[in-house]
Amino acid sequence: MALNYEVKKRAFGFDKTKTEKYVAQMKTLGVVGFKDLCDEVSKIGMAPRGVVKLVLDGLIDTLNMDLNKGFSVQLGEFGCFRPGINAKSQEKLEEVTASTIYRRKIIFTPGVYFKDMLTRASVEKLNFTGSVSGEGSNSDGGGSGSDGDENENPLG
């Protein structure tokens, strides 16, 4: 198994010329739905699918409650979920209010288990036809986690 990427042309706005460069971009192969995830966990964990669904639903509800209270939630080697915000900067201290917050998000930082997996994962270039080229390598680093894309909903 490998992580697949494709090459994309991007305009970088770091200078006045808006220079276009090529960059590798992660390409996911699809989405594993909740039902399929429950089935997979049931097979690996040897627990009935209904029990797996019950536990995952309970975990999601508990994460929701604790994050809503403002707590970070550490799930062992899995990682840590924490609430986050994006806010507009203001000139004066008094101008910073709740109305300057324009996005609430959930930030996930992977734990040791996922960081180790990312370190060991090979990386392969995905051709435009959808096939994988022979080019691949092992990564020296891991990911730092998502900062919570506004289109993401990490809790489903």
TrEMBL record:
The lineage of its organism: Bacteria, Pseudomonadati, Bacteroidota, Bacteroidia, Bacteroidales. InterPro entries: HU-HIG, HU_DNA-bd_put, IHF-like_DNA-bd_dom_sf. Keywords: DNA-binding. It comes from the Bacteria. GO terms for molecular function: DNA binding. Residues 147-156 have a biased composition (Acidic residues). It comes from Bacteroides fluxus YIT 12057. This is Putative DNA-binding protein. Residues 129-156 are annotated as: Disordered. The keyword DNA-binding applies.
